[in-house]
Amino acid sequence: MKLSGWGRYPVCETEVQFPRTQEAVSAALREGPAIARGNGRSYGDTALGAPNTLDMRHFNRMISFDDATGTLTAEAGVLLADVISSFLPRGWFPAVTPGTKFVTLGGMIAADVHGKNHHRDGSFRQFVDWIDLMDETGEVLRCSRTQNAELFDWTLGGMGLTGVILRTAIRLRRVETGWISQTTLPAPNLDAAIDLIESNLDALYSVAWIDCLATGSDTGRSLVMLGEHALLAELGKDQSAHPFGTEAKRSLSVPIDFPAFSLNRYSIRAFNSLYYWNGGRKSGESLVHWNGYFYPLDAILAWNRIYGRRGFCQFQCALPLETSAKGLKALLTETSNAGLGSFLAVLKRFGEQSGQFSFPMPGYTLALDFPMGRYTEDLLKRLDDITIENGGRFYLAKDARMSAATFARSDDRVRNFKHMRRDAGLDHRFQSHQSKRLEL
Amino acid sequence: MSKGSILILGARSDIGKAVAHRFAALGYSIQLAARNAGSLEPDKADIKVRHNVDVDLFEFDALDLDSHQAFATGLPVLPDVIVCAVGMLGDQAADEKDEMAACKVMRSNYEGPASIFSVFANLFEKRDSGTLVGISSVAGERGRAANYVYGSAKAGFTAYLSGLRNRLAAKGVHVITVLPGFVATQMTEGLDLPQKLTAEPEEVAAAIEKAVGKGSNVIYVRRIWQLIMMIIRNIPEAVFKRMSI
Ligand SMILES: Cc1cc2nc3c(=O)[nH]c(=O)nc-3n(C[C@H](O)[C@H](O)[C@H](O)COP(=O)(O)OP(=O)(O)OC[C@H]3O[C@@H](n4cnc5c(N)ncnc54)[C@H](O)[C@@H]3O)c2cc1C
Ligand SMILES: NC(=O)c1ccc[n+]([C@@H]2O[C@H](COP(=O)([O-])OP(=O)(O)OC[C@H]3O[C@@H](n4cnc5c(N)ncnc54)[C@H](OP(=O)(O)O)[C@@H]3O)[C@@H](O)[C@H]2O)c1
Questions:
Q1: Which CATH class is domain A62-174?
Q2: Tell me, what's the pLDDT at A259?
Q3: CATH class name, domain A179-403
Q4: Quick one: which of B26, B27, B29 has its CA closest to B5?
Q5: Beta strands B218-219; B173-178: pairing state
Q6: Which of A125, A181, B89, B96 could cross-link with A230 by S-S, CB 3.0 to 4.6 Å?
Q7: How far does the centroid of ligand 1 lie from the alpha carbon of residue A43, in Å?
Q8: Whole-angstrom Cα distance, residue B82 to residue B119?
């Protein structure tokens, strides 16, 4: 069948199976090259098997929970949203979370996702105790920092290319409430934004939303948002009645495709200015519900459709600390010159690098999305070049179109990853459209 | 503190599991009954971990009619709500050639579910309370060449539920008939179902929760099916018999 990632670009032909048992997974692996798929929230073709895709969402059972340590053992297809709805009322929250809760644990591990706290806590791997991985022979290996440690290291961030994750044990974070005390700081330009972030590295969460159409000396005009889990004593009367926040309602779905032109530079400019000024006025401290704070886009189910039929592409790179300011400025200038718009421009600070193939490196990461159109690919190529010139690298969970040569140039670790795959005989067993395109 | 208890018959069913989760989230204690019940251990753990409620497993075979009395009276507590998700689609083409196979489909969808509900209806009547939820199907609304073996048994079950509701209406016992259209489950996996007409098991579970709360009588899950079935029921037989739908 035809399948795509969250960006709805590219759409590829793949054979999808929905295994319910371990035996069904190993039987499927015997049929030919395959890749596991979680909830399809990666943007491009990383979860599109070539030729076979194993949709892991039937592996959705929780196995046990230790309330003393906050350790959850669960199957890989369990959704993060379900983890939150089960454990937040008991005082636990994911230690690292991406900007959507509709991801599976397997997808989070395979992409080794990062959150707004990477500068403090690192990526998701820091909170993974072990995984059970089915290898190319159908054997299941327990992998951890002490057992099959190398495979563990490659698999976290390995984009499904080392095997199928069946189960995992992860640690959650103790929280007193489901509220975030947020400080919003307007920054007139990029240097100011970076200064604000650097001087607040002790904040647990930190992120900046950039108005990427601001030009000239305003380039990088943004809102820097810092956050901490609010303590019970910090809640007002209304919130104390529901310290963990009542169940978030699913609302406002975007069921039909908006025409592509509804997101032209004017509508995006209006959106971005509004955002900046709204926040600008509200700057200062506020208490924000966890769902609105971490998952602002989840309230609009299927928001990926607002970009229309052609889909969209997300560009996300990381730049080393030394070249961040220069590189980011160049990326933003190139983007605003192109005038193709970006609904979202998100800037985060990364802390230490860990693992063999995980995306984060100490420095800054910038994420932009673009509706797919005639000139988009040209712009993306220029952004690729700027990234590489500045010693940066790319996030495979977002990539949909990069060339193998670009990817290889961006990261020396690519060669090791390929060798590891070849030596272990993984390369002809686990294949996605992305791995073929990038010659992994 | 438990809000009540619910028994799911045919608990390995995707719809049945979704119902169990839905009621567990409300704080109900859960009884799962199925053939080879031991295989539901992972689901038992899952429900317990997620919702912090009691879950028990029971061996149950809808076709083993002789066991039904003992099964019902042997439960540690008589539940407040019982949902029967037992069903078997069968293979229409094969069933046309093999009347024994056809009978098994008929017995699994009608005789077995009706038998166990007969037993529980009397226990509920004696207690003056309880809700019986029978999952039948729109397939029982009119026999079609494509699945009349299954459909006829569902028709029987639908009529049975209607009669039982009538009998118990004044006795504090409520009976709900669920007529789902297509649902994406193991039963229909691999079939090419129209997306707009196909519900997720969680949707069926939500509809059942609502129906239990409101005391509804007959529900269709996706509204559109009510309209579709009204049209199908009203096609004159002389025309219908030549149609292929
Ligand atoms: C709105 C939005 C915001 C986001 N924000 C962030 C963010 O802040 N930080 C961040 O890091 N990411 C972010 N992402 C990306 C997202 O977190 C990752 O793409 C994640 O991997 C998606 O998980 P999934 O379950 O949907 O997996 P899929 O998209 O289905 O798969 C992703 C990858 O995981 C592999 N995989 C999935 N399951 C398994 C398994 N069981 N075994 C082996 N491999 C498997 C797949 O092969 C594929 O390579 C965001 C995405 C969206 C849509
Ligand atoms: N899916 C649809 O499109 C759809 C549409 C309308 C109505 N329905 C009805 O919805 C109900 C639930 O079905 P589903 O879609 O969830 O499919 P399902 O997953 O196949 O569930 C059917 C269940 O019935 C059980 N069962 C069959 N015979 C049994 C017996 N003799 N004793 C005990 N259990 C028995 C099966 O158990 P085993 O695992 O032991 O085989 C299976 O778990 C069924 O009544 C079905 O007819 C389904």
A1: alpha beta
A2: 44
A3: alpha beta
A4: B29
A5: parallel
A6: A181
A7: 8
A8: 12
CA gap A154, A355 in Å, rounded: 7
pLDDT category of residue A249 using cuts at 50, 70 and 90: very low
* Closest-CA distance of chain A to residue B196, Å: 12
- The rounded distance, in Å, linking the Cα atoms of B157 and A307 is 48
Name, in order, each residue with C-beta under 8 angstroms of A239's C-beta and a sequence gap of 6 or more. Answer: A177, A179, A245, A287
Best of A2, A21, A22, A61 to disrupt the B interface by mutation (most B CBs within 10 Å)?
A61
Domain boundaries, chain B: 4-240
CA–CA distance, A37 with B102 (Å, rounded to integer): 38
pLDDT in tens, B34-48: 999 999 999 999 999
Q: Does A86 touch chain B (CB under 8 A)?
A: yes
β strands within chain B, DSSP E: 5-9, 29-34, 55-59, 81-84, 130-135, 173-178, 182-183, 198-199, 218-219
Residue ranges lining ligand 1, Cβ < 6 Å: A 6, 35-42, 46-47, 56, 76, 98-100, 103-104, 106-108, 110-111, 113-115, 159-160, 164-165, 297, 397, 432
The 10s digit of each residue's pLDDT in B179-233 is 999 999 999 988 889 989 999 999 999 999 999 999 999 999 999 999 999 999 9
Q: What is the residue extent of each domain of chain A?
A: 2-56+420-437, 62-174, 179-403
In this complex, do A64 and B43 lie within 8 Å of one another by their Cβ atoms?
A: no
List the residue whose alpha carbon is closest to atom 48 of ligand 2.
Answer: B183
Q: Look up the pTM and report it.
A: 0.94
Residues A86, B50: C-beta atoms closer than 8 Å: yes
pLDDT of residue A139: 97
| Contact indicator for B114, B84 with CB cutoff of 8 Å | no
Task: Give yes or no for B22 touching A (CB within 8 A).
Answer: no
Report how many Cβ contacts below 8 Å link chain A to chain B. Answer: 25
CATH, domain range B4-240: 3.40.50.720
Task: Please choose from B9, B12, B39, B228 the residue to mutate so as to test ligand 2's pocket, defined by most ligand atoms within 8 A of CB.
Answer: B12
Q: In sequence order, what E strands does A323-404 have?
A: 345-350, 363-371, 393-394
